[in-house]
Amino acid sequence: MRRPSLLVALLALLLAACTTAPGPDAKAPGDRWQPRPGTDWQWQLSGRLDTSVDVPVYDIDGFDHSRETVEALHRDGRKVICYLSTGAWEDFRPDAGDFPTSVIGRGNGWEGERWLDIRRTDVLEPLMAERIDMCRDKGFDAVEPDNMDGYRNRTGFPLTAGDQLRYNRLVARLAHERGMAVGLKNDLDQIPELVGDFDFAVNEQCAQYGECDELTPFVEAGKAVFHAEYELPTERFCADSRRLKLSSLLKEYELGAWRRAC
């Protein structure tokens, strides 16, 4: 058998390199951001954004803020989390009309918000993919998907724990496919099953309800737990937060700029 000429061999090598090399924006699975336990943060979802808080992580509304805002926070050395509701419909979002009425259930206690039928992934997956695309395109490092525990609430749908696990893993996959980290919001009962699928946790009021120990699997896995209380003074929860290595704040319910960190 004749050996290929040197020129042909070189051309073949070059072609293989061009077709297999990753693009400039590609990320390996291990390259996404991984916040560590005890990382300080700011959580602001309302009011004029205060970018002067000296912390390494900001969690802000994905719809309300621009790529320029995210870039400015990056220039200041911050990682930025994109807040989205993935388990509830919000009548004030620009894509509200894209959700068919068949997947919109009971109110979740917040004005203009209603639970979603998370069993209908045929409808919700493309809608959530578009939202997470928005976060990626604006340059966010991670996603905070809210209302991830509908199965424990009166949603208007017969949701099960299995339905919730499937949906939460779907949301995590959509974020990871776009190179972003993703946090598990509340849903304490399913932490043992989901800690491997999420890169950090976000929790509200675990101290008030005596539930903070349930977040230990995230800390043991080297993953941050971003935690907020609203009604307890800091002297009632900060000592335990430090013991458990939680990233704890006292906030007001409207989640404006005001904060008091442990």
Which features characterize this protein?
single chain; 262 residues; alpha/beta; TIM Barrel; nine-stranded mixed β-sheet; three-stranded antiparallel β-sheet; 12 strands; disordered N terminus; signal; Glycoside-hydrolase family GH114 TIM-barrel domain-containing protein
Number of alpha- plus pi-helical segments? 7
Largest sheet strand order: 1-2-3-7-8-9-10-11-12
Q: Report the uncertain regions.
A: 1-29
Number of strands: 12
- What name does CATH use for the topology? TIM Barrel
Q: Quick one: biggest sheet? A: 9 strands, mixed
Count of individual domains: 1
SSE arrangement, N to C: HEEHEEEEHEHEHEHEHEE
- What is the CATH class name? Alpha Beta
Cα-based radius of gyration, to the nearest Å: 21 Å
Keywords: Signal
Organism: Streptomyces capillispiralis
Pfam families: Glyco_hydro_114
Protein name: Glycoside-hydrolase family GH114 TIM-barrel domain-containing protein
SSE order and pairing:
Blueprint: H1 6-20, E1 42-44, E2 57-61, H2 67-75, E3 79-85, E4 88-90, E5 104-107, E6 113-116, H3 121-137, E7 142-146, H4 161-177, E8 181-185, H5 191-194, E9 200-204, H6 216-220, E10 225-229, H7 238-244, E11 247-250, E12 260-261
Helix pairs in contact: 3-4
